């Protein structure tokens, strides 16, 4: 298996993007899968490498990457050494990052022997689910889209009207604790301002209702982070979509970070199998 790890997509005038590629060499173009991590996530989290290998073994060209302002750096892509970059992240930047990754993949000739760049599917986990849905609706190069524990709405998560929201507005910065690293992770007020300025584009319900390509949703029945009702809402906005509820699964389908076992947890194995079948058909 070919693994191109921690490769740099250089973007003049913008922060570089770090990405990994996994595939079985055959000199034949394979369907492309691009994976987007979620909030406080990164491409090397938990079992994502095993996920990448599983898709490669199933015959896909699999690419995963760090969003440019996720808090990681080129030198240290794991965890969050650059909290100032994290403070400047927003949904528009993540959509631009994904667009640049798609464009890079489709215009870089040395990928074309192994990557079928006219057959691109997107997978997004959690917050990344909203990003891939918006991008799939607006980019014709994307043929299918999958969300794993995907969110249905960004606006409600700002908790407008709460005391903490008012303090954020007054001070210009708010903090969210990372439960695993115990870091106080900052969000600058620009995050909310960018959302309001681009609210129509960033409304997931609009994107899902307008989506005219195959859409698969997978969600754990015991997800404590994103309620399964959000998956049911997403499915109701696009009745042609396919919803699969993984009984007993949590938000990360049984994985943890670090994941030191050699095999995927049972729930993630099921997620990969269902997703792989959907993307092949």
Keywords:
33% helix; alpha/beta; two-stranded antiparallel ribbon; 281 residues; 23% strand; Rossmann fold
Brief rundown of the structure:
The protein has nine helices and ten strands. The chain has helices at 48-57, 83-87, 91-107, 127-138, 163-171, 190-197, 204-210, 228-237, 266-280; strands spanning 2-9, 17-23, 30-36, 61-65, 115-125, 142-148, 173-177, 184-188, 215-220, 242-246.
Write the layout of secondary structure elements.
Layout lengths: L1 E8 L7 E7 L6 E7 L11 H10 L3 E5 L17 H5 L3 H17 L7 E11 L1 H12 L3 E7 L14 H9 L1 E5 L6 E5 L1 H8 L6 H7 L4 E6 L7 H10 L4 E5 L19 H15 L1
Parallel strand pairs: 3-4, 3-5, 5-6, 6-9, 9-10
Antiparallel strand pairs: 1-2, 2-4, 7-8
Helix pairs in contact: 3-4, 4-7
